[in-house]
């Protein structure tokens, strides 16, 4: 359906037959990241207007599912992994290994396409940041966040997430 497909076209604009045909013709890759790390990243990039991480989290919780921001919406509500059969799920923090494998499976030369990743440093930094930011939250906020992201935590292996506890 190339005549109707532009970068701005939403999948929901197609009928079910067209959607099934399109999804069947693409290699579907889903990039996922621990929801708590997504919140930290969003806060650090200044996408929230809150002065502290705790107040930013409260704003997120108050807006809930009604928020239009994809920066902190649960992945399950954005990517519908129960409806779409993704060919690959790539976890943030393991990009070098997983993207290399993905390119190899696609028959592309691995080394010429991959930028330098610092996955180990990124994982350590986010682990430390997560610990610091998690301490700022009240017990109530921690429980509410775990509930808010419960489907993401159930759908993806975020075993080391602070929200999994």
TrEMBL record:
EC number of the protein: 2.8.2.-
A Pfam family that the UniProt record links to this protein: Sulfotransfer_2
Signal peptide start-end: none
The organism of origin for this protein: Eudyptes sclateri (Erect-crested penguin)
Similarity-based family: Belongs to the sulfotransferase 2 family.
Membrane topology: Single-pass type II membrane protein
Superkingdom, taxonomy of origin: Eukaryota
Keyword annotations from UniProtKB, A to Z: Carbohydrate metabolism, Glycoprotein, Golgi apparatus, Membrane, Signal-anchor, Transferase, Transmembrane, Transmembrane helix
InterPro entries found in the cross-reference section: Carb_sulfotrans_8-10, Sulfotransferase
Localization annotation: Golgi apparatus membrane
One GO MF term attached to the UniProt entry: sulfotransferase activity
Coiled coil, from the record: none
A biological-process GO annotation: carbohydrate biosynthetic process
Record's protein name: Carbohydrate sulfotransferase
